[in-house]
Amino acid sequence: ILGYCFLCFVSSLSCGRIITIGILVPAICQKSQTEDKVVFCPAVLLFLKTVGKIATCLELRSTALQTTQSQEEFRLEDLKKLEPIIKNILSYNKDFPFDVQPIPLRKILAPGEEENLEFEEEEEDGGAGAGVSDLFTTRVPGAVEGTLLPRLPSEPGMTLLTIKIEKIGLKDAGQCIDPYVTVSVKDINGVDMTPVQDTPVATRKEDMYVHFAVDVEIQKHIERLPKGAAIFFEFKHYKPKKRFTSTKCFAFMEMDEIKAGQIVIELYKKPTDFKRKKLQLLTKKPLYLHLHQILHKE
What crossing angle do the helices spanning 42-66 and 2-14 adopt, rounded to 10°? Predict the structure, then answer.
């Protein structure tokens, strides 16, 4: 519960709610005259950074619990070292016990939400003073690993599907920051049939392609997927000036397309239409999502 509260607090900063503090406590922060953001005094900045680092530690602990392949495990003993800091959070001014960066300030929007922001003018960078939006810009260590799950246990007569996401073609592929793909399985009404998975962040970009080369294990036997179900792939990337992660486009694969071997599928404009009612192609150019399917059956 405590971890949730801290994460909510840090998340609230991304939505601008912290500006309320500027109204209630003008002695500790003021509105910048040159930029539309809040500037805090050093004591408040230290407090916010400490909260952000605690959130990072909680994120690391969560990652360690969810994977058996974590390279930087954050142990329970490490977590207990945060107790005196939390108890004295308002007055804590010592060195933080772990070399971590504050949790990144990245607001991930629901499908369609970002549409209201896409047509806003880009904010100019720079300006004096440290604003709240400048505090949390470093990605949490380990977050680049994604949330992929292991393959389910095999069952006699049942088929499991591994999808290798090879690459995606985009005209501005080289400009995408921290790109990754969210994979989900939806029924005909857009309801999740399996846990949603995120790929690790892609680091290789060549020409008009972002390369992933990562295996995604579908978390349900194919025979148990309902009629009309589909597997969705949402390509997401980070927008530093707007400070949120946005869905750039999406693709999907229906049940009759599940066949061993290579497949390329079309890309569609956001927002993601899980019900597949109003689809609009992203481009007329021959740019697709490239996949390779592997079927496992006993």
Answer: 120
